[in-house]
Amino acid sequence: MARRKRADAEPAIFDAELADMPADLRWREWMNRIEAVLFAASKPVEREALARVVGRDASIELLIDDIREGLRGKPYDVLNIAGGWAFHTRIAYHDAIAASAAVPDRGIDLTQNEAMVLVSIAYHQPITRAGVSEILGREVSRDVIGALRDKNMITAGPRSPTAGAPFTYVTTKGFLAHFALNTLRELPDLDALEEAGLLERNVDERDSAFATHVGYMSPSGS
Q1: CATH code for the part of the protein at 23-89
Q2: What predicted TM-score, i.e. pTM, was given to this entire model?
Q3: Residue 90 burial (CB < 10 Å; 0-12/13-18/19+)?
Q4: Which end of the chain is more exposed for a tag (fewer CB within 10 A), N or C?
């Protein structure tokens, strides 16, 4: 008769160091572990989480560099997004994914009005609702601000030092993840986009064509 497992048996200890493995096999196993974690995750995985599955002296950056090297020629890559890492479909294959209708659209729908407000916040944060209204030349409603907060695109920032100390607004990690950015420094330069023909603007509505900008940045099919 098989011996029943003791209820109080200690769980097996996860071996992150793999000290008994040859160095080349250990490195390959660490790469496989990171790939497995990224593949299973639904959002970018931060360094702290990846560090739990590799040795203490392992370089996360070098491991990911080797993973990316192995993905050359593949339709997907590993990108540094919102302070972590995630698998991401290469832009060249977004149309094929959309045409297949096999992958649900995980994008966040933005109205043109919401997009215009979002780009104003993204490029001028922290900024108050009144500040956004001044940029766009019209009143921005609380409903639009609320919709962007509900979509995890913006959140409240520090109080403004102006009269009444109104809230300012800043973009979120959700904003970075949605547009496949690691930091705000990676935001495209609006003038450069316009010169490249990827963005159309006019002198009266400096940021009114953010719908085009969103289309340029959006990682649909990721």
Answers
A1: 1.10.10.10
A2: 0.67
A3: middle
A4: N
Greater confidence (114 vs 9) lies with: 114
In the sheet where 127-128 sits, what is the strand order? Answer: 127-128, 167-171, 154-159
**C-alpha 211: how far from chain center:** 19
Those residues whose C-beta lies under 8 Å from the C-beta of residue 216, and which sit 6 or more positions away, are 188, 193, 198, 199
Beta strands in 17-143 (DSSP E): 45-46, 76-81, 84-89, 127-128
Architecture of domain 112-217: Orthogonal Bundle (1.10)
- CATH 1.10.10.10 occupies which residues in the chain? 23-89, 112-217
Tokens standing for 16? 């992150």
pLDDT in tens, 92-141: 998 898 898 887 766 678 888 998 999 999 999 999 999 999 999 999 99
Rg of the chain's alpha carbons, rounded to an integer?
Answer: 23
The SS3 call for residue 121 is: helix
Q: What is the mean pLDDT of the chain?
A: 83
Residue 104, preceding peptide bond in cis (omega within 30° of 0) = no
* pLDDT tens per residue across span 63-93: 999 999 999 999 999 999 999 999 999 989 9
Tokens of 107: 């994008």
